[in-house]
Amino acid sequence: MAYLPKGYVALERALSKLGVASRTQARQWIEAGRIAVDGHVVRDPLQPVIPEKARIWLDDKPLLREAKRLIALHKPRGCVTTAHDPQGRPTVYSYLADLGVHVVPVGRLDFATSGLLLLTNDTRLADRLTDPRTGVVRTYVVELRGAVADAALQAWRDGVDDDGERLQATCVELRKRSGRETTVIVQLAEGKNREIRRLATAVGSEVQKLKRVAYGGVMLGDLPAGQWRDVALDEL
Length: 236
Description:
alpha+beta, Structural Genomics Hypothetical 15.5 Kd Protein In mrcA-pckA Intergenic Region, Chain A, Alpha-Beta Plaits, Pseudouridine synthase, nine-stranded mixed β-sheet, four-stranded antiparallel β-sheet, about 15% helix, elongated
């Protein structure tokens, strides 16, 4: 797409930022002639607009900016953090049918990971929470196979190199250790891809269960798997 002047975004992105639709759905609306900008039907999803100034209508009704929402979902194991999955696996959006607003995930939890997933219709908030410079702490309960030595856990604290990337936990607290398994509480300040699983592999261990229990000040608590709740911004 051509460079856009400051303040302008593509129309499909403007609709997404309003929190009323995903980019895919917005593109479908535009190409179907259902969207008008400043009184004129627009069929080009890449039409430049200034979201704060443009009068955008859908089917002759004005689209108003949705109230900012931040929700906490207890993501179960066995679903992916996307709207659609090419492999046909269930997605987290199947648990949000009654939400009534389009939201985007704040970071990701992989297919086998459960626990706290934040979602919001405020893309600026999502970007801020996932920006490594912000350093928002994520807390996990990790069950590792076998008796993991203290030296291996210390390596997590000191940091390890994996495929040219530095991986490091900000805090590792041993909760239980036996011949069968080791349970630790781990905190990370960045959301690197599969970081805890890669840390485990780096020290010759394996993650059996992984659950996120907190994101910043937002706690999973006793929220049942597959359920969600609204989050007050001061919880962060």
